[in-house]
Every structure is written in C-alpha cells, then in structure tokens.
Amino acid sequence: MLLGLLMALTAALCFGVAMVLQALGAQRHSPPAEGSGLVGTAKAMINLPFAAGLVLDCMGFVAQLVALRSLPLYVVQAALAGALAVTAVLGAALLKIRLGRAEWLGVAGVCVGLAVLGATAGAEGHKQPTQVFHWVLVAAVVLIAGLGGLVWKLGEPRRAAVMGALCGLGFGVVGLAVRVLPATHGLHLLPLLHDPATYALLAGGAVSFVFMTEGVRGGKVTTATASMVLGETALPAVLGVVLLGDGTRPGMMPLAVAGFAVAVAGALALARFGEVAPVEVEVEVETAAASAASAAVAVAEEKPHNSHVG
Questions:
Q1: 45, 59, 250, 292 — which has fewest CB within 10 A?
Q2: Residue 242 contacts by C-beta under 8 Å, 6 or more apart in sequence?
C-alpha cells in the first residue's frame, strides 16, 4: 500500500506541473480565434510547453496505473484532484502568483484530506464486475464523446462547465478501466487486447485530453477545472465502493469520507490554477488599462475648456 500511496502522490506531482505547461501552451500559442474545432485543438498542442506537459502526463499516468492496482479508487482520484495544490504552490514559488488566504486553506485542505485518506484507506477491493461492465465503460466513452460534440458550440461559461465535467468523467472511466483489467504476467499482453476495458481506457484518456484542452482554451478555466474535479472524483469513488468493493480500515469509514470531502473541497478552492499566467503579465495589462483610463479622463476634462476658448 505504501508504494501505491507514493505512486499516487507522484502522479499528482506530474499532473500538477503538466497542468501549468499545458495551459500556457494552449492559450499562448493557439488562441481560440486562430482555429476552431479539432483543428484549433491540434494547433494548441503543437508547441514546446504543451509537449513537455504531455511527457509529464505520460509519467503521471504510469504512476497512476501502479497506484490504482493497489489502492482504493477514491484515494487515487482524490490524489489526482490534489494536483491543483501542486500547481498553486508551483505558481506561487516560480511565477510569483499571489495566493489568497482561501487558496492557502485550499492547499492545506488537500494535504490534510489526503493524509487522512492515506491513514484510513483499506486495500483495494477485489470484486470483479461481469464482462458486461467492461462494455458499459466503452459505451460510456462513446456517450461522453457524443455529448462533447453536441456542446462544442455552446457559449461560455456553460461550454467550459460541460467540457470540464465530461473531461472529469472521462478520467473517471480511465480509473475504472484500469481496476477491472485482468492481471498480466511479463509480456503476455493478449488478455488485454481481448478486453473491452483496454479500449475504454485508451479512448477515455484521449477524449478527456481533448476536452481538457478545449476547456482551457475557452478562457473559463476556473469553471472548467472545478467541473473536472467533481467529475473525476465523486462518481468514480462511489462506483469503486459499490462495484469494486473498495473500503477503509475497520471503523474508519466516516473519517475517510471526511478526508475525501476535505481534499476535494480544497481542490475546488484551487480551481483557477487550471491555468497559470505569470503575474508580471497581469500587472502589465492592469497598468496599461489604468493609463488608458487616465488619458481618457484627461481628454474628457480638456474638451469643455477648449470649446470655451474657441
């Protein structure tokens, strides 16, 4: 279990740093006005920061796979939501972004909640749903992709909220798929190729990445990220307990539920860190706006005087 906890925290660290790089790459290298649909999304991914973020995402995904094979799903999903705490602290340390009191409380909430989950979590459940559930995961990915296509043209902030929620649900499908995949030995991967959950995992990850990029590019980052956190934690956690048999140490269920709630609430408080922009840029924009406003006031005050002289 200790290895699983370490891998879950490693995944959160990788995803947290990747979130910074991908958001910078998606918004600075391909603004929404430059393209639309999947073409615009592809353009947003073709740059060095986004590529570096994808590398970290791959490393985080491997760590997530290890964690999911030895920990309850609710612990891993809460840890992944905690990646926002990594992003917030990294932004405060390296990009000089100012964190408010509520945001520092969010960071503390994530840390405390994950610590409680780590202390109360039992071993992963050993229930195995029928093969029908594996096909249900495939159908869920198709449904998520179809809904994303339907809302692609929605206006903000509804579009960001829906895209974020669909992204989170897609990541939830990935977690469930990993848990129900059969165990393999060495390079004997044939059972994986025959299992529908393998394709649900791959397709769910791909669809989620697309929707995550679209949510960031739309500009409503806080809305999209908050929806993503809820989508990837709440429903998968419940399904893990009900269908997969995930549990806690004896008598610690209430404490585990409280820890999960605190960790997710802390992540929601940090939702705006789905996008990180250097504070210097924000200051320059604010300064320029203030200068323009001052100039407009000066012109307005001077006009009556000039008219009187004329």
A1: 250
A2: none
Can you state the angle between helices 158-180 and 48-68, rounded to 10 degrees?
40
φ, ψ of residue 121 in degrees (nearest 5): -70, 140
pTM of this prediction exceeds 0.90: no
> How high is the mean pLDDT of the chain?
80
Q: Which range among 57-66, 221-230, 278-287 has the greatest average pLDDT? A: 57-66
| pLDDT at residue 122, rounded to an integer | 82
Question: Based on the number of CB atoms within 10 Å of its own CB, is 52 exposed (0-12), middle (13-18) or buried (19 or more)?
Answer: middle
Q: Positive or negative CA dihedral for 137, 229, 152, 58? A: negative
Confidence band, pLDDT 50/70/90 cuts, at residue 281: very low
DSSP secondary structure, 234-302, as one string? HHHHHHHHHHH---BSTT-HHHHHHHHHHHHHHHHHTGGGGS---HHHHHHHHHHHHHHHHHHHHHHHH
Q: For residue range 1-23, what is the model confidence (pLDDT) as tens digits?
A: 788 889 999 999 998 888 777 76
Contact of 184 with 191, CB cutoff 8 Å:
yes
Contacts of 241 (CB under 8 A, 6+ apart): 72, 74, 125, 247
